[in-house]
User: What shape does this take?
Amino acid sequence: MDTPDSSKRHLYLVDGSAYIFRAYHRLPPLTNPRGVPVGAVYGYTTMLWKLAEDLHKADGPTHLAVILDKGSTTFRNALYDQYKANRPPPPEDLVPQFPLIRDATRAFSLACIEEDDLEADDLIASYAREATRLGWDVTIVSSDKDLMQLVGTCSEGGGCIDMLDTMKNLRIGIPEVIEKFGVPPELVGDVLALMGDSVDNVPGIRGIGPKTATKLIQEHGGLENALAAAPAMKAGKLRESLIEQAEMARLSRVLVALKEDCPLPIPLEDFALGQIPRDPLAAFLEEHGFTSLLRRLDDGKGSPGPKTQLNPAKPETGAAPAAPQGSRQPLPAWPTVDLAAYQCVQSMGELQQWIARAFAARVVAIDTETSALDSMQADLVGISMALGPNDACYIPLGHRGTDMFAEMPLQLDRAEAVAALKPLLESDAVLKVGQNIKYDLTVLARHGVDVAPIDDTMVMSFCLDAGRSETGIAGHGMDELADRHLGHTTMTFKELCGTGKKAISFAEVPLADATRYAAEDADVTWRLHRLFAPRLLEEGGTRIYQRVDRPLVTVVAGMERAGIKVDRERLAGLSATFTTRIAELEAVIHEKAGGPFTIGSPKQLGEVLFDRLGYKGGKKGKTGQYSTDQSVLEGLAAQGAEVATLVLEWRQLSKLKSTYTEALQAAINPQTGRVHTSYSLVGAQTGRLSSNEPNLQNIPIRTEIGRQIRDAFVAEQGNVLLAADYSQIELRLAAHMADVPALKEAFAGGEDIHARTAMEMFGTVDRDTRGRAKTINFAILYGISRWGLAGRLGCTAEEAQAMIDRYFERFPGIQRYIHDTLEKVRECGYSETLFGRKTWFPRINSKNQAERQGSERAAINAPIQGTSADIIKRAMARMGPALIEAGLPNVRMLLQVHDELVFELPEGDVEAARPVIERVMAGAAEPSVRLTVPLGVEIGTGLSWGAAH
DNA sequence: GAGGTCACG
DNA sequence: GACGTACGTGACCTCT
Assistant: This one.
């Protein structure tokens, strides 16, 4: 600071919500590179920029916070239910900009505050009062007339309050307030109470406007005096109104009064301005295409520009740049992980200190420790937090004694600690970082905490490095990431809790060990986040991470938590039927085989079929074992081997019973009575989700007998299930991406695409040619080989090759797509979806032909499968807000099955929900990508999942 | 833990 | 000429 009196504090309080409305109306409707409207965000960003430029001026801010309105109702609605009821909804293209305001604030590393039940004005008033009490000067960045009540007030402390209208570049002091209202600031509230406010729906007194209100207050010196003087006034409308509506005026006075004693969620000192780190700001400016600001950021010559304060120095942690594939990147200059440095938090005082420090840090890595792996059932045992390298703590909450005689460990009351952490975990001003934070979201949601905003290092790793590994599939687990990126070997859960029968619950781990383990996880997560955030920007992963995968984390957590109801009795009934039939089959198979054997053992079955019974066609694989899979058994059955037919039926029923009818009953959550799958966001290299424990993405549908299992997935009483499918989405995307006129035309015309293919290929459409065409269409999507196609179609490789040639000829574009895709992957090492998701293929140039060809097929498929995954993920991220906006808060999204979404909704909502869901799904590529084929969506409803198809 | 099989898109 | 023979998953079973 170059101010003479360097101890003088000057607090700027930015009225963010008010600003954004004004900026919206004053600025042209800009959109960012993704087509998202950002005009108001741009205005807001330039305003913050201007304020940042004032940093080093003599009377510039030393402290700054942005205050936002949070909810739509506040305590004032309890006083007067019509308060602000007349407000029109914000313009459609402004709505998506609200959350970006927070992003912008965070990008400047500024504090951002919003509280339920309070308006921004109240928080501003409370902070302003507190600051002046301490002798600070305060500038309120706003032009809101309500806030003018605060201007000029000097307390004993000596601090003064003024306002700054950045748009008009106007300082508002006492003279300006008097000019506007005709009265000094302390009487502004009385004037406002008389005149009312039509926008906020403050009633005031009908017939009294600003002029009369000012005159009355000037004459009588205050509202109560004016009301008291009314009976003595000369008869007329004014006198009558004042008498009749005196109570309305008094209510209005309360409504316009600012609440100056709100609890302050963040201490004033934490608003201290320091250097503004460059990287997050640059990332934000780039993401939204604010290129002129970005240039100014990097242009050191602009003086007196923000350069000196918006210091472009590398982040203090020295994040390492991306490493070339395969080589270890240089390790960041951080102190090595020191398990002894972590604090075990055992008092509320210590906890409060950590919370305050986390607010100040604005980024906190968190990790929850629980008693089990299932986030829907696990009990919360503790929470760890990290604010920097080795700056981490563990808060034990649910530990037991190490044995039944041991004393209970000293720890905070769980409910009390969670309540203390809740404002931090829910604060928009603080980014919560987790490794697989979806798990923590679910656990904490069950304790009433909705964690936001979030980052997930596992998902970040996936967006950077999907498929990227010399030896195979790159994992994104914490231990692996710590080793790969930090050169650090983490404590393993096994070391701590053991395995198998001797395993103990985390709740039984002694606090000292638990602290080392849990805090280390948070510490490592914090470090990984510091590495990944700049890499995403440099390597082009920001778009897919910020726009698709990050928003999805919270959405998917919600779906998992919702679960789906299954009809236990129905499953049990099916199980019993299957059991009986399986026993019958077993007896007959053993009889035909000439003795008992384990039918479920492919090895024994092969020997029975090909050695003992002497059937032909036995093929041994590389393990020296006969193959007995479906196609082999079907071949035997065609030769008249009845036992093969019986084994096929046995296999089908055994599969259905063990994997579905039995396992699903066991998967019903005893608390919710529903089945909660867990989705992995990093499970499939192409960007698809995967589902596990239980897998709800492979519930039978293709056979009649399997389909009965789908009928056991049901809606709650009074509700129905709605299933919405993209039809032929991958073929449509192939038509678009390879630019195939005939296919695009067929999709545009709503034709049967396989029939069209049959016509092009064979000149005629019947069952047979359509079926063959369908096979070929899929073969194309999966990276064709003549051998594979020949096997599927039952023809020779030469005939298959002829068909491939014909396909390329009829559908020009396909061959070029395959060629270009492979070219790019060979060159860059990765493929990309239309939305920029990368999948790495480290073995694309392998000397091993099988390996190489396998990579080539996967590389041809990945952009198509991945783009499809991006599209449905975008639809999922938008679905919740779209349904809320449509007034359908009771429609719940439950499942995703790659090209299908399943919802549960009140029967009465079906007709309203159908078009909303259809629109969101069909339009999910836009505005990022303009497809040249329509996306078809088919919707069905029913009391069960089976019936909804 | 690996291999085989089969449920799904 | 061998290699293996369509992309992406997860669960269950048997056997080592």
